[in-house]
Amino acid sequence: MKYGYFDDEHREYVITRPDTPLPWINYLGCEEYFGIISNTAGGYSFYKDARLQRLTRYRYNNAPLDVGGRYIYLREDGNPLYPDRPLFWSPTWQPTRQQLDRYECRHGLGYTTIRSTLGGIESSIRYFIPLGESLEIWELTLVNQRDQPASLSVFPAVEFCLWDALDDAANFQRNYSIGEVEVVDGVIYHKTEYRERRNHFAYFACSEEPAGFETQREAFLGPYRGWDSPAAVVAGGLSNSIAHGWQPIAAQHIRVQLNPGERHKIVFLLGYGENPAGDKFDPPGSQTLNKRRVVPVIQRYLRQDEVEKSFQALRAYWDGLVGKLQVTSPDIHTDHMVNIWNVYQVMATFNFSRSASYFESGIGRGMGFRDSNQDLLGFVHLVPERARQRILDLAATQLPSGGAYHQYQPLTKRGNNDVGGGFNDDPLWLVLSVAAYIKETGDWELLDEPAVYDNQPGTEQPLYNHLQRSIQYILDRLGPHGLPLIGRADWNDCLNLNCFSDTPGQSFQTTTNKDGKVAESVFIAGLFVLVAKELVEIAAKRQSFAEADTIGNAAAEMEKAVWAAGWDGEWFRRAYDDFGDPIGSRQCQEGQIFIEPQGICVMAGLGVENGRARQALDSVYTRLATSHGIVLQQPAYSQYYLHLGEISSYPPGYKENAGIFCHTNPWIMIAEAMIGRGDRAYDYYLRINPSAREEIGDLHRCEPYVYAQMIAGRDAPTHGEAKNSWLTGTAAWNYVAISQWILGIRPTYDGLEIAPVIPVAWDGFDAVRIYRGVRYNIHVVRKGPGNQAHLIVDGQAIQGTVINISPKDTSEVQVSVYIS
Length: 820
Ligand code: GLC
Ligand code: GLC
What we know:
With 820 residues, this protein is α+β, with helices and mostly antiparallel strands. The chain is 27% helix and 25% strand. The longest helix is centred in the C-terminal third of the chain and has 22 residues, at 545-566. The protein is globular, with a radius of gyration of 28 Å. The relative contact order is 0.08. One alpha-D-glucopyranose is lined by residues 354, 368, 370-371, 491-494, 656, 709, 728-729.
């Protein structure tokens, strides 16, 4: 069953009923102020950091589902005239869940519009965050479609979070006493803790003079009542409560009279403000919030022309971003994802790493080192300046050993000590993101940019030195088979071979009971070869030929070690455990074959020449592939194994224990494309493509416009059900797989390469790619069943598949590609 449809012209996904299997969300904001919003207006907002500077409350894992949001209530003040109509309702369906006559939610790029009609009152709320501002706009449009006048009351309401979202949900003995607000000129200011060490506050404002307000939750809801039926909305008036402690909220009351056919707009603002430490109060010495900085901003955005202007600017911004790669292919699902939704999801993962979604609470994790580096692979062409800064931020959390903090806090940009380091794959990913950035931009100077280690001033070294240490970190930690030691875990966070945890509640990721000198990872070995090859190319481009040789030799040695101890006969092994026994081998009872090394080793070129790559990928096909995607390993672990850690803690078929961990699927697509099997690559691509799964919405359950981290594997009773949508490395890797390897439009150090490995049935495709400031109009035609590409560039046949960087003043290049 479908719950909506793609509107490609507007770049929107349109949800046609509110009761989607799970809340289907969108993100607002792409700079510093952010919001999550569901199709029924649930969600929350934060400034920069979802944990430390949370503006509004949201309760995860709640019943009913998805309550806490940006709510507006409409009330029929003339109700005695229409006794058969409901007294009040939510035009976004939640939280009253009053049945609506019409409902439609449009999630667009950076905005969401929820439209509905009930009893002849049409309402539309457009939510977005203007570029460059730390505020969100809720633009409400009401239309009276009745043939009689309507008297309505409008009540917007939000519940404030007392900033630190974790403390807010736990430290009640303090928090019930600290809430503070001010209400001035109709604007509600939330200023809890402003009296002491905070210099920021939130505000809520409206383009009309409110007839009343409420800032104390209980005054609005009434004792023992919920958001579905606030006592004040029932009563039709607010009491102007001022919160002292308890739960500060912002609710307002606006009365609206609408003649038949009349349309009326109201603008609401929820925003974040900050004052310098020495200028917090006005007058100085008082305890009154200094509003001089924020009032002009509020006044500006309460004007409808400014609202419209900033909305158009937001649209233009996104048009520019997605315009960097547009394709017209024979397959609508490819087009949906490449042109709009996959690239949009890439921006979300860039912004939030794995911190804030409907599955990530915003309080658990900061920015992941390996995650963010991989996210960059899909992002570098979008906003290269931001990618550059992110790379430098990540490098600054690298440790002098070459290892890395596994995570850092976005607010402080400091490594997170609770989790620490020791995930031995981490540093390698930095090389991949840097390589991707340079291939995209040609900005070789990045390598000379100084970056500190462990955030310590005085330890600056050129970024290139960080890459060298990344490689060295692995070479300093080889195990008995000459393969890299795994440490706490490699890419698979749940393969914890040094953990041996038998105590409930212990963190699998940070508990270490073994000295870590035995357990090795074939995955890291493959990744090492892949990364070392990149670095060889980089070193050669910098004329460091001796170094290129040294690294090349290290890669060759590693390859040898893989063939000696990492090949199982028909596929690559996964690892060696603390007893020196193989994991991911036919010798094992369970977990005989894992997807990760098959993908990464082939991507590194292992076995491409000698046929073993093909063999490994055929094993994936026969042993791991399902119609819903490729599972992580087989057979699933049926019990908890002390020596394997978290992977065996999950019930079979879920997450790392044989779930379809979507992040890894594009590695296989890339590997298949590398050995020339376009049909297979594309087949795998479609199996997990969310748009292609739209028709099975009841099974898939998550949004059909973004990838989910996991789809339940064949061992799970809910095989095919997706979970953990939005924040996953799946976004960047699928984008890379489809755009760079299947469509084959690939940035290189020397220019744009076009080497498609498309399905045999495709007769070609068209694409526009903006690359280093030049627009490439690409027309691909299939002439024969193979993957040989012949390129005609501006009318001239060229050798090979890489188009040289154009002379400076070129703005457009025409490319015809003939495949045979
Ligand atoms: C999660 C983590 C990622 C890890 C993956 C596999 O997606 O964010 O870092 O590689 O799980 O365990
Ligand atoms: C759990 C998850 C894994 C994730 C990790 C992050 O282990 O299974 O996917 O990467 O938590 O801490």
